[in-house]
Structures are given as C-alpha cells and as structure tokens.
Model the fold of this input.
Amino acid sequence: MKFKLLAIFIVFGQLSFSQSKNDYLKNNRFDLLNPNFEIPQNDFKIIGFGAYHGSQDTETAEKILLEKLIQNKKIKYYLPETDIGIAYYFNQYLKSGDTILLKDLVKHYGNRVPQEKTIETYNKWKNIKKINDNQLEKNKIEIVGIDMIVTYKYTSKLLIDLFQTEKEKYKSYDNLVEMVKIDTTDYSPNYDSYSKNSLKNFLADYENNKTYFQSISKNQKITDNLIENINLTFKKRDREKTIYDNYLYLSQLYDFQSNPQFVRMGFFHIEKARENNNPSFFTRLIENKIYDKEKVISIAGFLTKSRVLWDLKYDDKKNYIGYTTEGGYGIGDYWKEYFKGIDKLKKNKISNLTLYRLNNENSPYKKNQTDLMEIKMFLKKSNKNDLKGKTTTDYFDYAILISNSKANNPIEEINK
Done:
C-alpha cells in the first residue's frame, strides 16, 4: 500500500511539474512570423543565435531577429561565424551591392560550414543589405570576423589592400597579388598548400621589414590581428580560444563594451556554461567577467519536422554534381536522437517559428533539469553526465522551435 501511494505521488509530481512547464511556455511564447513581434529583452551587451546548420528557416529566424535588432537600433556590430578577411569583404558588399563578390564570399564563408554554402545564405546577405540601406549612416551595422581563418583568399586580398606596396619591391607581395588575380588555388589553410607557402614567404618579409610595412599600413590594429591569425594557421589551434582572443583584441578597435553585437554561430559557441568542462565563446565571456551573465543573451534554435542540407556530391575531377538532404539524424528531433523536452515546445507552438522565453521569473527551466540540452540517443549514452548540476537557463535564455523547414540549397544550384 505504501509503495502504491509513493508511486501515485511520484506520477502526480511528474505530471504537475510537466504541466507547469506547459503553462509557463504558453505564457512566454512569441510568434516570429507576426509583423508586430519584438524581442522581449533589449538590455544586453551581446546576443547570440545558434542552431543546427543546413535548414532554410533557420536563416529566416535569424533574418527576423537581426532585422528587429537593426531597426530598433539595439546593435552596432554583426559577428557571423567567419574570419576577419571574409567579414571585411562582407562589409564591402554591403556598400557596393556587388553580387558577384557576394556569391564568392558565400562559397568561401561556407568552407567553415558547408551546410551554409547556400542560396539561402546568399539571399540572407541580400536582405541584410536591404535592411542596412534603410538606416541612417550612423545606425548602419558593421560586420566583424572573430573566427579562425577558414580560407586564405580573402586573407590574402585584405593583406594586399592594407599595404599596396609598389610592384617588384617584395616578390612575396607580388606573388600574393598574382595568386588572387589568377584565382586557381584552393586557398586551404589545412595543409601545406601553395597559398600557405605564399603567405609564409610574405610574413617572413613582413617580420624582416616591419618598420616599412607599419609605415604604409592603412590600419595597424587590423594588420596586427590579421598577421596574428595567419600565424595561428601554421600551428595547432584552439578554435574557441582563438574566437575569444580575437573578440577581446577587436573590442579595443570597436569598443564592444559600449556597442552591443549580434552573434550568429553554431549551437555550442553560444552556450553560457561549460559542457563536459569545455568552455564555449560565451562561457569564456562570462567566466572571465567580460560581461555579467544576464547581459549575455543566448537564443538556441531547435528543428522539428524539418530537413537539412547534408552532403555535397562531386565527381572525380571535383566538379559539383548534386547534394543530399537529411530529415532524421541531424535535426535533433528523431526517435534515435532527440533533445529532452522538445515535445513541450512542439505542443505549445503557435507558428512554424515560435520563440520561447526560458529565463523569465519563476521559470521551471531555471530548476535542476537540463531540458533542451540533454540529448537522448537510442542504445547510446546521452550527455547527461556532462551537464551535471546545471539547468537549461545556465546554457541559454530563449528557444526557437523551427518547424516544417525545407533544407538549404547549395550555392551551386543558384543558376539552375
């Protein structure tokens, strides 16, 4: 009899707690597709959005968030998941509207995450330009790249633009100019490529003639950061530390403390607490007291009934021939692999893009559970132990449920 009563109390307790989450979500949900949608919190230093890569409406969600932030003059800088060189030329695109440049930027940007080397990314940047063009000059956003170098093309191009020394003064510089002009190398930093050797030769000349190069540099702070990041590609790197270090360095130039930023990176980078003792970019900002935790806002995206771009296909000559998509593994809502608690988001959604505020007063997501962080996997160990002692809101403040999204389309499909 005692056992039966205990079982009844346990079941009742679980049901009541589950119901409290449902009630909470109903009272703290927002329709991103509603034209009157506004982001609930405006007092922050940095706000980030991250989700599984490769789905069209992830880009739609980011567009809405970014548009609201720009229109309401809440951010000054946009930090996509890219390096200093590519970011510099995204700024050039925003000024010029050169779509040939944009298409090439998307291809090189997508070397970091091939699932975003897509038509949807291309269109996102066209939308960003349109939004930015409608702002007063003082309110326009600027793009800043804090990630590790992913391709040497725009690194080399930026070096050329920063110095523009006379022809035949340094052979290594002339070689960079010729390399970018011919544009046939793969620009890979991941092996001993032609482009890597060209940059090594230039950096040797730079170090041996630093006074001269500093005297002609258009921007020494950018130069120093660029040179440091090139040097990092010649050795083993800690990506998260590089992102954090670049952020701190560039804060001197852009005064991030006084100018809030919007960050778009993968899910892990915007986590506000350690997972398996591994500190993300946002975690480092908080742990090192760059910002108070409540001034760092993290928005995590979750997919359901959606597809993602999966593999790009190439022939033996490395010519693009097609792609595949995935709707099971890779979206975080599959019977073999899913986020704990995603069912409650699905139950309470009000549109295909529903935002839930998780950090409000009396939120059950502040209690000792890790919904939306713990991953349940069929016949495999979950990450529960990596999250021990944490709660959902230790990691992020908002969740966006992205439903019924199609997969991204590779940029190679743009002219088909």
Q: What stands out?
A: DSSP finds 14 helices and 13 strands in the chain.
